[in-house]
Design a protein that fits this description.
Elements (H helix, E strand, L loop, with lengths): L14 E9 L3 H12 L4 E5 L6 H6 L4 E2 L8 E2 H12 L5 E4 L3 E7 L4 E6 L4 E9 L5 E4 L13 E2 L12 E5 L3 H10 L5 E5 L9 H8 L4 E3 L2 E8 L3 E8 L5 E4 L3 E4 L3 E4 L10 E2 L2 E3 L11 E3 L4 E2 L7 H19 L15
Parallel strand pairs: 1-2, 1-8, 2-5, 8-21, 10-17, 11-12, 11-17, 12-13, 20-22
Antiparallel strand pairs: 3-4, 6-7, 7-8, 9-18, 14-15, 15-16, 19-20
The structure holds flavin-adenine dinucleotide (FAD).
């Protein structure tokens, strides 16, 4: 199946219209995209990251999750793939790599316009903010921008993409070690470099990697990436001895962590508490036509879990339905009754 999120949306004049705009393609946003499609809404979904999946894809795609209802255990990325597939029949339009910057209301027209940092204006009848902990940006590998997408990557949502390649993983945390462990049977060779001699990853995974054929180099950093069209090799150096070595690799996975920034969302006049958006029981924010769900919401008793985000997404979308089209009811009916 082709990846439904891969078609980077483009729109004439940088303007797109939708019934519902979802800001944030993490688990809550993706489930909301399904639910809104089920309710007959035309949906746009926007995320600052180049991949759908939010924290799950960015931080723990290979970890097993045990507390999603109906799945005794499911890998993070598999859950995200399933969510994308569940929404796909309703053809949501994905704007990946777009950070929501500005929001304006047109009360007379009954619309809200959200503009991304790439000047894409999405005009909609309601907005659902599923922004998690905010704009989530991978810490960049210094001076390597030109190789991004040409051998240098910050995510590995599909391990097969690195089959039979020589891979350099940069980092000493959970993502670096999870990828080293899981890519080991798939890649031709793996070298993991870390600038310190202590790792921040789960002890058991570190042991597994150290006992595997993965080459682990401590006190080691990237000096430069060598290549033209694509990565061909990487020069690394020991930050204690300045000893240098050229590694022949075709892929570099930089797992240097992420920075999260609520940034633009804080400027829209939303009522907030400790970097979260206050919602009522219908997931309404204080702004007309603007709802929120998932990790970003705050109310008494809030629990930040995927399963809770799913419930909030369904509540938010169904409450947005009569706002978008007054003839629609709150209760959606049962999906099992649909043809
Ligand atoms: C290591 C780890 C393990 C975890 N394990 C579990 C577990 O076992 N079970 C469980 O239930 N939960 C677990 N969680 C928590 C779970 O991942 C979160 O509860 C869940 O991801 C929240 O989903 P969300 O859709 O609300 O937000 P997120 O997953 O944070 O997604 C929000 C998305 O919004 C985007 N965004 C934000 N602001 C903007 C903007 N202005 N413009 C465009 N895009 C924007 C971000 O880029 C991001 O992709 C774990 C978390 C971590 C870090």
């Amino acid at each position: 199946m082709t990846d439904p999120t891969s078609a980077v949306a483009s729109a004439p004049n940088g303007r797109h219209e939708a019934d519902l705009l979802i800001i944030g393609a993490g688990p809550a946003g993706l489930y909301a995209a399904y639910y809104a499609g089920f309710r007959g809404m035309n949906v746009a979904i926007l995320d600052s990251l180049p991949e759908a999946g939010g924290q799950v894809t960015a931080l723990y795609p290979e970890k097993l999750i045990y507390d999603v209802a109906g799945f005794p255990a499911i890998k993070g990325q598999e859950l995200i793939d399933n969510l994308v597939e569940q929404a796909a029949p309703f053809n949501p339009t994905y704007f990946l790599g777009h950070r929501a910057e500005e929001m304006t209301h047109d009360e007379a027209a009954g619309t809200v316009t959200v503009t991304s940092h790439k000047a894409m204006a999405i005009v909609c009848k309601a907005v659902l903010i599923t922004g998690g902990i905010g704009t989530f940006t991978p810490r960049p590998l210094p001076d390597a921008e030109e190789f991004e997408g040409r051998g240098l990557r910050y995510f590995v949502p599909k391990l097969d993409a690195l089959a039979d390649q020589d891979v350099l993983i940069v980092g000493g945390g959970d993502s670096a070690f999870d990828w080293a462990h899981n890519l080991q049977p798939i890649a031709r060779s793996i070298t993991l470099i870390h600038r310190r001699d202590r790792f921040r990853a789960h002890e058991h995974t570190v042991e597994q990697v150290l006992e595997s054929p993965v080459r682990v180099m401590i006190h080691t950093e990237v000096a430069r990436i060598i290549g033209d069209e694509r990565v061909k090799a990487v020069e690394v150096f020991n930050n204690k001895t300045d000893e240098r070595e050229i590694l022949d690799v075709q892929a570099v996975v930089a797992a240097l962590g992420f920075t999260a920034d609520l940034g633009p969302l804080t400027r829209w006049g939303l009522q907030q508490e400790k970097r979260h958006i206050i919602v009522d029981t219908a997931m309404r924010t204080n702004l007309d036509r603007v709802f929120a769900a998932g990790d970003i919401t705050e109310y008494d008793g809030k629990v930040r879990l995927i399963s809770v985000g799913f419930g909030e997404a369904a509540t938010a979308v169904n409450n947005a339905a009569p706002v978008i089209d007054p003839s629609l009811k709150l209760f959606p009916g049962h999906s099992s009754d649909q043809p």
